[in-house]
Amino acid sequence: MLPQVIIIGRPNVGKSTLFNRLVGKKLALVDDQPGVTRDRRSGDAEIAGLKFQVVDTAGWEDDDPDTLPGRMRKQTEVSLVGADAAMMVIDARAGVTTLDEEIALWLRNQKVPVVMVCNKAEGKAAEAGIYESYALGFGDPVPVSAEHGEGIADLFGALWPIIGDSEARIQAEEAAADYTKQQNEIAARAAAEEAGEEYVPEEEDLSAPLKLAIVGRPNAGKSTLINRLLGEDRLLTGPEAGITRDSIAVDWVWHDPAMGEDREIRLIDTAGMRKRAKVTEKLERLAVQDAKLAIDFAEVVVLLLDATQGLEHQDLKIASQTLEEGRALMIAINKWDIAEDASSLFNGVREALNEGLSQVRGVPLFAVSAKTGKGLDTMLGAAFTLRASWSKRVPTAGLNRWFEDAINANPPPAPKGKRIKMRYITQSSTRPPRFIVFGNRLEMLPTSYERYLINGIRKNLGFDSVPVRITFKGSSNPYHVRQQASKQERTKG
């Protein structure tokens, strides 16, 4: 684990802008209005070779603990547990406020070293605020402009005395791990060649953490489900719809009761995705876009339904988008503990999925409860199995034996008396599995025959309900190409 540095401050001082600047990506949503960030979000940062994990937090507000701002503050307080350092951020142009003083008082009572950061420090208007920050008791402030990238390098000098030693140790451990990985890959490749088998590269190693995204409509219980899995209130929840805005990734180790071993998972919580016509606010549009990016990043996507509302058109749309992106998809019906006529609901959802998702039939469907924990272990075990199918590579020899049998059992049609010749097939990639079929006149092949091949690949080669892609490539005819070129020359003449 990299050293962890927490960004803390009142709303609208530029914490998320600083976070994005440090990680080098626009991971956190940013807007002029205060209170955009609600859950804490982490990312890998680097300043002049100093690597650390930086955590963005919600703006610190002095509200009742039961209110949404109060619960956000509680999340910020919890984020400091186990941290190596904190950066207290103020708005240098606004100067030190009463709320800044309250935050500083709380931080001085913690055991975490604090770096004073004065953001929005560009121009003379910030000078007074920078001098005022000395009174907060954290030593020399670091003036920065997160928006323009000014002063970021100066953070190196403030953070290195705190986290430099641990970061250097981690770099040495990473270098040793990279060397071991390289040697293992060389040995695995040599062993595969000696046995006459295909070598599966490290990128397809299923021991890597499972990237599992939870998506769905607002209030389906996505954050509650992740909190249940983690066994802590890691994500902000409540009766208010649309609490989650940023897509939040949490690394977690799950003990698989079926296999009796620990398995690593990166859980990704996302904002609720409503119908486009209902999304009118800029922040919600940004949150939905962030959720779609999370789907692209994930390996397996769990679409969470609300048992009290059943399956709606928007759910099918989210499912279709997930499959179009080539992700492995699972459906989970949440709030099963309060579902009415459960058996009829489950069968109805299954029928609707088979009808509405014709491109992939038999998508795994589970009944779960984020409140009681029902069905969650079964769902997670199935997610690893689904990823294995999504990552599977079929040896070329075995693939072509199946291909020949499939063609003999159901030969391709001959449109207008012209025979379509299919020569061979190869798997070009995995995640999702992609295949290339070579032959002649393949552009004349009907869609129904393509579906026949895809269904056969799923059924007979162990790809189950994952999305499968097929590309058809015809053999070029050099004589035909020369003939066409000659005809074009005569036309020009």
TrEMBL record:
InterPro entries: G_ENGA, GTP-bd, GTPase_Der, KH_dom-like, KH_dom-like_a/b, P-loop_NTPase, Small_GTP-bd. Coiled coil: none annotated. One of its GO terms (biological process) is ribosome biogenesis. Keywords: GTP-binding, Nucleotide-binding, Repeat, Ribosome biogenesis. Transmembrane segments: none annotated. It comes from the Bacteria. Residues 3-167, 210-391 form the EngA-type G domain. Pfam families: KH_dom-like (PF14714), MMR_HSR1 (PF01926). GTP 2 binds at residues 216-223, 269-273, 334-337. GO terms for molecular function: GTP binding. GTP 1 binds at residues 9-16, 56-60, 119-122. GTPase that plays an essential role in the late steps of ribosome biogenesis. Associates with the 50S ribosomal subunit. Belongs to the TRAFAC class TrmE-Era-EngA-EngB-Septin-like GTPase superfamily. EngA (Der) GTPase family. This is GTPase Der.
